[in-house]
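Hi R.,

Here's the chain you asked about this morning:
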Amino acid sequence: MMPVRSLPVVQNWDCAGCSACCRSYHIPVSAEERRRIESQGWENESDLKGMAYFAQDGGWFTGRSYRLNHRADGACVFLGADNRCRIHAKFGSAAKPLACRIYPFLLVPAGDHWRLGLRYACPSSAKGEGRPLADHVAEAREYAEALEVNTPGAVHSPPVPLRRGQVVPWADVLRIVAVISKILAEETKPLEYRWRKVLALSALCRDLKLDGGGDAKKMVTGGRLSEMLSVLGEAAGEEIPESPDDMPRPSWVGRIVFRQMAAVYARKDHGIEKGRAQRGPAGRILAAMRFAGGAGAIPKVNSLIGGVQFRQAESSEEPFRADSSALLTRYYRMKVESLQFCGPTNFELPLWDGLESLAMTFPAIGWLRRVFAASGLNRDEATRQALRMVDDNFGFNKLLGLGRQKFALKLLSSRGELPKLVAWYGK
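And here is the predicted structure, written out as tokens:
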């Protein structure tokens, strides 16, 4: 079995029993998991008699699959009145579906080991409550063993390409990741500046032939690669404006494309936070048109959004406070070091493209922070709410993996709009 490595990012977590995950997600179950749950004798429980344990997804073209069923109030059919999983309470954690056991952990294969991360869609992760992440490595090993059985291709998987056609060894991928994480950890600078520096470094590195163009003698690797990236990072920092006020405002094209992506990050299609605008094709089309126009009331694509105008989301906002900046710094370093921004965990995006997709979440969080602040939340709580909403979709919402979303990201990048968006919504 491949070892599990915790990350150097300081992060705490323990389940707080809020049951948000039991009310918000559709949990897939395999045939074996269905058989196991059906054999547990739930038909003897009075409140479960006659109730379907599973719901069917898919169809003729996508293939049939099953998930845990939910009650009319949105709760999982096995969620008890005490907000505890009844399967877990009666038979232990191992009796639950694997997806339930793993959440909110992230296990990402990196050649000869798994990298351990967390999803900040979980409120306890965002608040940093509980034991250090390193204390969970033992249970994470159990999940990794199950993943290796179910996804054998993850074992000794090939390195994530830097860009299409350019592959370097895993050790060099991790060197690049370490340099990016170091830049994001420079807390003497505002986070929006650090992200603009990362994007400038990415732009410098995209055209470099780090793999030697097929010639092993010309390959930039090991300590030479780390040294070169450090020099390029310093050069990138000197080339970008110090203040976001010295950055031009995003163009009207950039703002239209951005709002369409922000709509995807804000939406919730199922669970208790499902928005009214998501309840039918007509509502979704109308919401898309409203986001394109950017005027009037923001469509309720998520039940947490309500009564806020687009102009309020575009109004000037005070910089992220110290607590919010520390939270977002921790989040982005976790995403980078756990590799949950590229490859199989982010719709097979190459490293540099995946990094830009992660950078896009920063203005999306800044936009939503303004929305929630206008709704009456204090600035730090508004940031946490925005982060949870964005992370709920990042790497998981299939819409973000579609060609049109990837094209939109490339458009913003090629037109130089992404750094402008980072500066505008990060100040």
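One quick note: Strands lie at 4-5, 12-13, 28-29, 54-57, 65-68, 105-109, 114-118, 131-132.

Cheers,
M.
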